[in-house]
Amino acid sequence: MKPWHIRPLEERDHPAAVELLALLNPEIPTPVVAERFERILDEHPHYQAFGGFAGDEMVALAGAWVATKVWCGRYLEIDNIVVSPDHRSGGYGSRMIQHLEALAKEELCEIIVLDSYTSNHASHRLYHRLGFEIFGFHFVKSVPQTP
């Protein structure tokens, strides 16, 4: 196994990040994924993106931000966590979450939250193993745009 490290993304890492995000969202064209990722980084300065690297290769990605809600207080939300298919089941996802858990402690967060697609059963097993619980439902409603 190549040496593993996690670090904040730099601009030069963005193409590799987009490749991983496209794997997580195969129904979205890659140029749209790239535009949305750049928009997140441009419009939300509190958003942090981290890459997990095996040697020089980015094999895992996760975004996170810290916010506050009335019901839970200060929290860290994990966004878009993905591991390259060639590196899944190698502990990379667990290490990424552990890194973000340490960040949550540094930021004095009371909880960590994340969303997972209902069909992503492998991620559910990982999250349960790492101590996450299913707490509620994430409801979604489309907002039609007028031309």
UniProtKB/TrEMBL annotation:
Residues 4-147 form the N-acetyltransferase domain. This is N-acetyltransferase domain-containing protein. Pfam families: Acetyltransf_1. Keywords: Acyltransferase, Transferase. Gene3D superfamilies: 3.40.630.30. It comes from the Bacteria.
